[in-house]
Specification:
The structure holds two protein chains of two kinds. Chain A is an all-alpha fold. Chain A contains eight helices and two strands; from the N terminus they run E-E-H-H-H-H-H-H-H-H. In chain A, helix 1 crosses helix 6. By secondary structure, chain B is of the alpha/beta class. Chain B has 13 helices and 19 strands. The chains are: A mainly alpha, B alpha/beta.
């Protein structure tokens, strides 16, 4: 398709521009899910400002999608962008953006509109474009798209970003280098050997 | 064995059901071979269970190593629970390989783990009995007949009353405010709240002693550290770990008989049959694929017990070309699980709990419950923040919260996925949040279940396809029960309540795809294939009315082992 020719050079993928395309698309999604929040920062402290960008959540999504039996990150980015283009057309906007190596249509949308796109393609009827060559069917794509919400939260609020420089190596070799921002924001103290809080409560008493 | 058989009984799967059957058969002197698709954690024959193939088999408790288990179970939720690359996933031990594929049509997901212990590795260990009324509805055996088997498992695991912490206190406060009463029944016929009956050992009595060294704790007993779901490894040895997954209970009991041989990393891809005049078609052997080497072997036994779980058991039946049966793979129940959560003000928490936070990460992951025969059950829970957020804010069939208008009669303030700044605001209040998971009583429907994809295969055969359509009557029950849970949060003082509204094909309680009385006879022996028994959640006849299914599956597995011995090994007696 002509729309995807940005990543093609003489019929071959230019790996860097494909990478940018996928990363920018996933960043746009992760940013909509866990954005920067200056208002929360003002009210509750600077730590609340940070979001998915600082915790590499888009990279987590790409890594997860490419760990499925059928690697899916490039296809997911294409599906998101094609759905975004359709959405812009429906709104009467000129979707023919100038050649742009970045996240294209999807990242042009407002944060709320990006999520609406994800919701739209979370049902089989909502997917208008399945990338050529993908061995998955529409029904198989739906659960993977729905999983993006869970993956984002797991990527952001679990320990994963704290693996720091080891976050992309094999899971068996990763080392926790620091406390993730997500833990700081929610007040999770991290793993524990025990809490000295035993004791049933009055309300549990049988009488 | 020198009689041409590799074992008296082959058990396929070392999860919640298979481990129980193996222990019971081993105690009768029968030679049992367990074939488990996933890894074995805490066994020194597999010092690096996720990165190297290790040994073929283990037959002895001497091989179990608590220090190794503590190394394997890191208490970190992405490392342990990530559905794609985590240690508790449905996939091979080698995490550089992808998970085994399944197709879930409506956007749900399957929460299941391969490995010795199966999904009990990550379960909350809640062990309620089924509602008697659910047995009366469809089961070919009576609830009364099950009672001694329940008692047997309850004593063996053992099951005891859970220890509440702040999240339960708040939940029980709300339940009482709603006018519900405490129930001390174990055979439930009417609504009531109680502490969970759970498979977690009592609290370490030294826990509240400030001089007690938690870091180097070698004592028996739960320490309320909140890692039930991430993998419990608290105890002086593997067999006395606090949360009683079958990895630390029935598997060590089975090994102790000296008659049980366990091969992890061994995926059974086919069940083979023979035929004779006396029995007709009977199960005779299995084909096994080593998940590290790809090596294929065949093992013969006199009896085969299928305990691969509610998705893989029918898949294996279908992939093996066993006889057609209109109920194989059909009748799936899931409890149509949903979550609601409420955020509380500090002042209200101080008044109710005497502390300003709920601390969802501390304490047993779920230590209280509300039972409501006729509708189902719900329970408070709290976990590490990644899992907790995906459960209460990240899973919905209703899109994002801003796409939904809440109706006046609904007890929740928001519905759908919480995202954006509101997600951050809500998660900032993680420590002031009470989460409730709701299990609704869904009816068996032949439309729901597991089929094979007609084209696509993985190395283990055609891929399973899971489809589930919620009926109008079930949706009504579910909405009613979720409404009660939301109301409880409001009554307890929650300032804002959110309903997730999960897709009904999320499979965490996966039941009744190989139903007793339909696929099997009343002994859980396949009606069309002699010498093939089923001992996992798939053989449950329905969704039990809503209670968590593991205990019932385990009780039934004890009974099935007894029936196997009576029928095929009449001279075998329990030591």
């Amino acid at each position: 398709m002509a729309d995807n020719s940005d990543g093609l050079k003489g019929g071959l993928y230019d790996e860097n521009s494909v990478y940018d395309y996928v990363v920018n698309t996933m960043k746009a999604y992760a940013d909509a899910m866990v954005p920067h929040s200056p208002d929360l920062a003002e009210l509750y402290g600077r730590i609340q400002f940070y979001g998915a960008v600082e915790s590499y959540t888009a990279e987590y999504l790409i890594m997860s999608l490419d760990s499925y039996p059928t690697p899916f990150a490039v296809a997911a980015a294409e599906i998101l962008n094609m759905a975004a283009k359709q959405y812009l057309m429906e709104k009467g906007e000129d979707p023919d953006l100038p050649k742009d190596p970045g996240g294209l249509y999807f990242s042009k949308l407002s944060q709320e509109d990006r999520l609406k796109i994800v919701d739209r393609i979370s049902s089989p009827g909502g997917i208008i474009y399945v990338p050529a060559g993908l061995t998955m069917k529409q029904e198989d794509i739906v659960p993977v798209i729905s999983a993006l919400n869970r993956l984002t939260m797991m990527g952001y609020y679990s320990e994963w970003s704290g693996y720091g420089s080891t976050r992309f190596i094999s899971p068996d070799k990763r080392m926790l280098e620091y406390r993730p921002i997500g833990w700081e924001q929610v007040g999770y103290p991290g793993p524990s050997k025990g809490y000295r809080i035993a004791g049933a409560f009055n309300f549990a008493q049988k009488k | 064995m020198d009689n041409g058989f590799d074992a008296d009984v082959i058990v396929i799967g070392a999860g919640g059901g298979g481990a129980v059957a193996a222990k019971e058969l081993g105690e009768r002197g029968l030679k049992v071979l367990i074939l488990e698709a996933g890894p074995w954690y805490g066994n020194r024959k597999w010092p690096e269970p996720n990165t190297s193939a290790g040994a073929q088999e283990s037959l002895s408790n001497e091989d179990l190593d608590i220090q190794l288990l503590k190394t394997n179970f890191t208490d970190l939720e992405d490392d342990m629970n990530d559905l794609i690359t985590g240690k508790f996933r449905w996939g091979p031990a080698d995490r550089s390989k992808g998970p085994w594929p399944r197709i879930i049509e409506k956007g749900g997901f399957v929460w299941q783990s391969a490995g010795v212990g199966g999904t009990t590795l990550l379960y909350f260990a809640n062990c309620p009995r089924a509602y008697p009324a659910a047995f009366e509805r469809e089961w070919p055996i009576s609830y009364e007949e099950m009672v001694p088997y329940y008692e047997e498992v309850e004593q063996t695991l053992p099951v005891r009353e859970a220890t509440a912490t702040s999240k339960e206190d708040l939940f029980l406060y709300g339940a009482r405010k709603m006018g519900f009463t405490y129930t001390n029944e174990i055979n439930l016929t009417k609504p009531g709240f109680r502490l969970q009956p759970n498979g977690i050992l009592g609290i370490n009595p030294m826990l509240n002693n400030p001089d007690f060294d938690l870091e180097n704790n070698q004592a028996v007993g739960c320490t309320l550290r909140g890692h039930c779901i991430n993998g419990c490894c608290i105890g002086p040895n593997v067999g006395s770990v606090a949360k009683r997954s079958t990895l630390v209970s029935y598997i060590p009991y089975a090994l102790a008989t000296g008659n049980v041989d366990i091969m992890p990393n061994s995926f059974v891809t086919a069940i083979h049959t023979g035929q004779n005049e006396e029995e007709g078609l009977f199960a005779s052997s299995v084909t096994v694929r080593n998940t590290w080497t790809g090596e294929i072997r065949e093992f013969k036994a006199k009896v085969i017990v299928l305990s691969a779980g509610s998705i893989e058991s029918p898949r294996l039946w279908l992939n093996s070309g066993l006889p057609e049966n209109e109920w194989v793979g059909k009748g799936l129940t899931t409890h149509m699980i949903d979550c609601v959560s409420g955020i509380f003000e500090e002042e209200d928490l101080m008044n109710i709990l005497g502390m300003s936070e709920v601390k969802p990460y501390a304490g047993q992951n779920s230590a209280a419950r509300m039972d409501y025969p006729g509708l189902g059950a719900f329970e408070p829970f709290g976990t590490s923040p990644g899992i907790n957020s995906t459960m209460i804010y990240g899973t919905s069939q209703k899109g994002y919260y801003f796409q939904n208008q809440t109706r006046e009669e609904e007890a929740w303030d928001r519905e759908g996925i919480i995202a954006g700044e509101l997600l951050k605001e809500f998660m900032r209040n993680y420590n002031k949040t009470l989460s409730i998971v709701v299990f609704s009583d869904d009816d068996v429907s032949q439309k729901n279940g597991v089929t094979l994809d007609p084209e696509r295969r993985d190395e283990n055969g055609y891929i399973p396809v899971i489809s589930y359509e919620i009926s109008d009557a079930d949706r009504e029950k579910r909405d009613q029960l979720v409404g009660l849970a939301a109301e409880l949060l409001k009554k307890a003082g929650a300032k804002t309540v959110s309903r997730a509204n999960w897709p009904p094909d999320v499979c965490a309680h996966i039941m009744s795809t190989m139903r007793i009385g339909f696929v099997t006879d009343t002994n859980c022996e396949a009606s069309q294939v002699k010498r093939l028994f089923i001992a996992d959640n798939s053989v449950l006849c329905n969704g039990l009315g809503g209670p968590n299914p593991t205990l019932t599956t385990q009780a039934l597995a004890v009974r099935t082992a007894e029936k196997i011995a009576e029928k095929y090994f009449p001279s075998a007696k329990k030591a």
